[in-house]
């Protein structure tokens, strides 16, 4: 037995200090293995075959000739695949997405639907055979035509209620001195994390083990256990390193297909999605059509506000891109109406994509506010300050910290907003037109129950285990800092292990709630461990381990409007000859609770802002109505912001804390993109005098 010395050693608070990623060296040297790289003996490889029609039935698959090809072990399809249970409600009350519950029937509901998995000894053999497989369809007419006038649109709840209504909207608009009534559109957008989706499934004794790239092992365990009617304790999911997720890495077709094949062949099977396959299998952000109406007094005070949004979803699955939700938090009015509607089309279901709802919703709402500021002749920041609500406009709940005004003040000071001439189209630099714009941002802050364990070792070090996912955000490092403070030691003495469902249930890396939820569980385990160590009984060789579960603590949180806030600023140049828009600089100032690691937090916020530039100017997945599929389903055809598009871009924050969180965290996962596209679009108006209500602001649309 050794007595612990570190508990009494002085240390500096780690939370709030910059720390490079604890796994950074492993990542840059290649020692870090991603899901598609982890070696397994006797590994077989599956390759998905996707439908080439957008609607119909599979009449025949010519599997025999493919089975005769070199190395081919099996072809799984609807006639021979294991049956799945799909009648369940999983995480977040969600039903399984039919695109992920593969090979259960002969119907084809969208182009790029999985119709078979070819399994072979090597990936090359599987691909060769998959591309050779002849599939015959009975084709039916399809409808992929998203439009405002679609007759089948209906109001739909997603993770929030579909409709909120307060006051008489028509009367409010009729009585208003100033009215903005405009339609805004955003296109279909795709996540495309750098690491494509990949999973290896194998049976290990009586347990199913899946090595995967996902946003939450607990989530994937739950879905696979449901789908395959397994005891969750008989499923283990591991995801040590994840190269990006953004909402796309839950359970998708590849994990399910890999488990099926591993079950049938009784050997490990890996399935990796190609970039092109990800366009129909990974989920995406629906296009939106948003109608915003604002009625105000001449002093800018809002009297009426309506925000209605329409998105597309699949015929067999309802997903709501809840864009009208942001208005329920940001601005109040006597008459206040919001609604989210969907229309079902012959397309894959959209899914969560970074700041689902808030990203497109803030574009429409914050652009409309800019139009109102222009009409009222009021500075856009002043207009927003005059409309700061003191309670949740729809919920009526008090705000648990709303430091938006402070973000405006700090942002305006640093951006040089005071010198701005509000008139559009006046500033020139050579042939370029220059303009600046701003927008507000918010994103819900919350925590979900998690479990963690903390172990004290005799050598004075600690191991923390939690089934968290670091999807590239730096979560593992943030949790190391949180754990170090909670254990009253230095980060170097703490080893945080994540990405293994055997560590117990935990929140996903999603909803901007991951780090906060995990940190809470770690704090509780660490505090109790410290108490045990204070008894001074010494530490046995196997260490002392304490487990935590935050279910009760989080359940006891008082109801309030909890959000992170931000102010986004952009300066653009517009070439009126070519239509080229260049963002010159961007500044985002956030009130997002306690920042754990300034280094990775800044990366996270800037990444969101860069995505906002991309959303404003580049991203657009174009669907071909004739085929029902995408035009240019690759990263050559789908444009994203690259280094050359990213100018001076600063993200910073003001002092802010959540009083109800043990560490003061609110969450920074998604807010970086919120309002960013609106700030760019508002700057384009300021440069040119032309309002752009449809994203992206392509060169051919500019003037
Ligand atoms: Mo996020 S869209 O909750 O990964």
Automatic annotation (TrEMBL):
<dbReference type="Pfam" id="PF02738">
    <property type="entry name" value="MoCoBD_1"/>
</dbReference>
<dbReference type="InterPro" id="IPR000674">
    <property type="entry name" value="Ald_Oxase/Xan_DH_a/b"/>
</dbReference>
<protein>
    <submittedName>
        <fullName>Xanthine dehydrogenase family protein molybdopterin-binding subunit</fullName>
    </submittedName>
</protein>
<dbReference type="InterPro" id="IPR036856">
    <property type="entry name" value="Ald_Oxase/Xan_DH_a/b_sf"/>
</dbReference>
<dbReference type="InterPro" id="IPR016208">
    <property type="entry name" value="Ald_Oxase/xanthine_DH-like"/>
</dbReference>
<dbReference type="InterPro" id="IPR037165">
    <property type="entry name" value="AldOxase/xan_DH_Mopterin-bd_sf"/>
</dbReference>
<dbReference type="Pfam" id="PF20256">
    <property type="entry name" value="MoCoBD_2"/>
</dbReference>
<keyword id="KW-0500">Molybdenum</keyword>
<dbReference type="InterPro" id="IPR046867">
    <property type="entry name" value="AldOxase/xan_DH_MoCoBD2"/>
</dbReference>
<keyword id="KW-0560">Oxidoreductase</keyword>
<feature type="domain" description="Aldehyde oxidase/xanthine dehydrogenase a/b hammerhead">
    <location>
        <begin position="29"/>
        <end position="141"/>
    </location>
</feature>
<dbReference type="Pfam" id="PF01315">
    <property type="entry name" value="Ald_Xan_dh_C"/>
</dbReference>
<dbReference type="InterPro" id="IPR008274">
    <property type="entry name" value="AldOxase/xan_DH_MoCoBD1"/>
</dbReference>
């Amino acid at each position: 037995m050794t007595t612990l010395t570190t508990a009494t050693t002085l240390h500096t608070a780690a939370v709030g200090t910059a720390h490079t990623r604890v796994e950074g060296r492993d990542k840059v040297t290649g020692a870090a293995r991603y899901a598609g790289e982890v070696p397994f003996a006797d590994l077989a490889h599956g390759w998905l075959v996707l439908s080439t029609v957008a609607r119909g039935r599979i009449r025949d698959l010519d599997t025999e000739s493919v089975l005769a090809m070199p190395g081919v072990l099996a072809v799984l399809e609807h006639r021979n695949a294991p049956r799945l249970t799909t009648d369940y409600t999983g995480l977040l009350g969600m039903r399984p997405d039919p695109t992920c519950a593969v090979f259960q029937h002969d119907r084809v509901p969208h182009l790029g639907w999985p119709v078979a998995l070819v399994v072979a000894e090597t990936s090359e053999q599987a691909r060769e055979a998959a591309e050779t497989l002849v599939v015959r369809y009975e084709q039916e007419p399809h409808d992929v035509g998203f439009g405002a006038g679609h007759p089948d649109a209906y109001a739909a709840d997603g993770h929030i209620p579909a409709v909120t209504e307060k006051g008489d909207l028509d009367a409010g608009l009729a009585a208003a001195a100033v009215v903005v009534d405009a339609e805004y559109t955003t296109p279909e957008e795709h996540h495309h994390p750098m690491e494509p989706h990949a999973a290896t499934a194998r049976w290990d004794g009586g347990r199913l083990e899946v090595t995967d790239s996902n946003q939450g092992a607990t989530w994937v365990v739950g879905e696979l256990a449901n789908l395959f009617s397994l005891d969750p304790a008989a499923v283990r999911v591991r995801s040590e390193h994840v190269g990006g997720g953004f909402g796309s890495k839950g359970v998708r077709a590849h994990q399910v297909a890999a488990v099926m094949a591993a079950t049938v062949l009784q050997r490990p099977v890996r399935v990796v999605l190609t970039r092109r396959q990800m366009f129909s299998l990974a989920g995406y952000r629906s296009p939106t059509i948003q109608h915003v109406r604002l009625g105000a007094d001449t002093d800018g005070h809002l009297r009426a506000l309506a925000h209605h949004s329409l998105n597309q979803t699949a015929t067999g699955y309802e997903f709501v891109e809840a864009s009208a939700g942001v208005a329920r938090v940001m601005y109040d009015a006597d008459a206040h109406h919001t609604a989210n509607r969907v229309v079902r089309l012959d397309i894959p279901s959209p899914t969560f994509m970074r700041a689902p709802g808030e990203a497109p919703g803030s574009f429409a709402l914050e652009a409309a506010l800019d139009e109102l500021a222009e009409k009222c002749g009021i500075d856009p920041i002043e207009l927003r300050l005059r409309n700061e609500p003191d309670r949740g406009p729809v919920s009526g709940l008090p705000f648990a910290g709303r430091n938006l005004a402070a973000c405006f003040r700090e942002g305006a000071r640093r951006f040089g907003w005071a010198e701005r001439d509000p008139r559009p189209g006046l500033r020139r630099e050579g042939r370029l037109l220059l303009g600046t714009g701003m927008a507000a941002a918010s994103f819900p802050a919350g925590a979900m129950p998690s479990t963690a364990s903390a172990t004290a070792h005799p050598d004075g070090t600690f191991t923390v285990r939690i089934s968290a996912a670091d999807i590239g955000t730096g979560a593992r490092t943030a949790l190391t800092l949180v754990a170090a403070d909670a254990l009253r030691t230095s980060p170097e003495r703490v080893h945080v292990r994540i990405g293994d469902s055997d560590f117990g249930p935990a929140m996903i890396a999603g909803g901007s709630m991951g780090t906060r939820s995990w940190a809470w569980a770690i704090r509780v385990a660490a505090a109790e461990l410290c108490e045990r160590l204070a008894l001074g009984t010494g530490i046995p060789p196997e260490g002392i381990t304490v487990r935590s579960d935050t279910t009760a603590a989080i359940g006891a949180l008082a109801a309030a409007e909890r959000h992170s806030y931000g102010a986004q600023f952009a300066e653009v140049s517009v070439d009126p000859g070519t239509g080229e828009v260049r963002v010159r600089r961007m500044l985002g100032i956030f009130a997002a609770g306690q920042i754990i690691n300034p280094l990775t937090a800044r990366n996270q916020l800037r990444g969101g802002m860069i995505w906002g530039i991309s959303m404003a100017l580049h991203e657009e997945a174009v669907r071909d109505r004739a085929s029902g599929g995408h035009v240019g389903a690759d990263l050559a055809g789908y444009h994203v912001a690259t280094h050359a598009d990213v100018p001076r871009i600063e993200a910073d924050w003001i002092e802010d804390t959540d009083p109800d969180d043990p560490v003061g965290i609110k969450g920074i996962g998604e807010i970086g993109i919120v309002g960013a596209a609106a700030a760019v679009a508002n700057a384009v108006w300021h440069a040119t005098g032309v309002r752009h209500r449809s994203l992206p602001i392509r060169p051919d649309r500019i003037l």
